[in-house]
Write a structure and sequence with these properties.
The chain is of the alpha/beta class. The protein has 2 domains: about 1-175, HUPs (Rossmann fold), CATH 3.40.50.620; about 185-275, Pantoate--beta-alanine Ligase, Chain: A,domain 2 (2-Layer Sandwich), CATH 3.30.1300. It contains 10 helices and 9 strands. It has helices at about 5-20, 35-45, 75-85, 95-100, 115-120, 125-140, 150-165, 195-200, 200-215, 220-230; strands spanning about 1-5, 25-30, 50-55, 90, 145, 170-175, 235-245, 260-270, 270-280. The strands form 2 sheets. The chain has a 6-stranded parallel β-sheet with strand order 1-4-3-2-5-6, sandwiched between helices. Helix 7 (about 150-165) links the parallel strand 5 and strand 6 (about 170-175). Helix 6 (about 125-140) packs across helix 7 and helix 9 (about 200-215) runs antiparallel to helix 10 (about 220-230). The chain is globular. The protein starts with a strand and ends with a strand. It binds adenosine monophosphate. Adenosine monophosphate binds next to helix 2 and strand 5. The site of adenosine monophosphate (AMP) has 16 residues, from helix 2 and strand 5.
């Protein structure tokens, strides 16, 4: 496995693989890898000749007062984990390699980025789409793999690929969870042991919603109220949003019908966690 930190070296290696006609699978990450990331990497390994991951904590997608500085980093551990999945190349550039002085170009997907995390984190998706567009140009993947845990991000990137006629397929894989149901996240590391115990309420609230829908409840307000009650059982939880949206426009629905995304964002102290489920009635 190769570790590459500069763009010219990466471009040279990718060009050589392309010339050989090899397919390229790509998993962009911010590192501090966990089983969620590894599940994407294993799939990318399975489905492609050459498998690349990126590890880059992208300052552009962090707002003021967010956790860019504190975001956990451990490149040595990450490269060992990447190698264990059969990864061929880890691209881990510096900030100045990606955004040299004078950098001035940004990619923005409108509408889909307005609600949910886009409303709570202004500028976040602009950062995501800009860095992922750059990474796609560099890695030139046939397939790129993303997690359902960041459902809005996946939809936004699918839209970017479609609108900009990018020549690759985006594959979205299921959320990997801890045994108690908490979605794996690099940010779980920030939680105190008390908060970690309480954090299961995100998953519990989604299960409550699923159970209500299974029993025939369709009113979004009633489902959301019950979810709020469940989350409120955790003393330290502060709800950022509880939303039920359609899966095309991500617009809030008043009644559950067809395919809907139920999404939550909850803060424990400074740590903001998200989770979601897709339901179909
Ligand atoms: P991140 O490093 O948090 O930017 O995540 C990199 C990729 O891993 C994104 O496509 C995430 O959606 C995905 N991912 C993060 N957590 C999970 C999880 N628990 N299960 C599945 N995919 C995940």
């Amino acid at each position: 496995m190769q570790l590459v930190t500069d763009i010219p070296s990466l471009k040279g290696i990718i060009e050589e693989k392309k010339q050989k006609g090899l397919s390229i699978g790509f998993v962009p990450t911010m590192g501090f890898l966990h089983e969620g990331h590894l599940s994407l990497m294993r799939k990318a390994r399975e489905e492609n000749d050459f498998m690349v991951i990126s590890i880059f904590v992208n300052p552009l997608q962090f707002g003021e007062g967010e956790d860019y500085e504190e975001y956990p980093r451990d490149l040595e551990r990450d490269t060992a984990l990447a190698e264990s999945t059969g990864c061929d190349l880890v691209f881990s550039p510096s900030v100045s390699e990606m955004y040299p002085p004078g950098y001035a170009t940004f990619v923005q997907v409108e509408k889909l980025t307005e609600g949910l995390c886009g409303a709570s984190r202004p500028g976040h998706f602009l950062g995501v789409t800009t860095v992922v567009a750059k990474l796609f140009n560099l890695v030139r993947p046939d397939r790129a793999y993303f997690g359902q845990k960041d459902a809005q991000q996946a939809l936004v990137l699918i839209k970017m690929v479609e609108d900009l006629n990018m020549n690759l397929e985006i594959i979205v894989l299921p959320t990997v969870r801890e045994p108690d149901g908490l979605a794996m996240s690099s940010r779980n590391k920030y939680l105190t042991s008390e908060q970690r115990k309480e954090a299961v309420v995100l998953y519990k609230s989604l299960k409550v919603a699923e159970a209500l829908i299974r029993k025939g409840e369709r009113e979004a307000e009633i489902i959301k109220e019950n979810m709020f009650k469940t989350i409120s059982e955790a003393k330290q939880a502060q709800v950022d949003y509880i939303e039920i949206v359609d899966t095309k426009q991500l617009s809030p629905v008043s009644r559950v019908k067809g395919r809907c995304l139920i999404a939550v964002a909850v803060k424990f102290g400074q740590t903001r966690l998200i989770d979601n489920v897709l339901v179909e009635v």
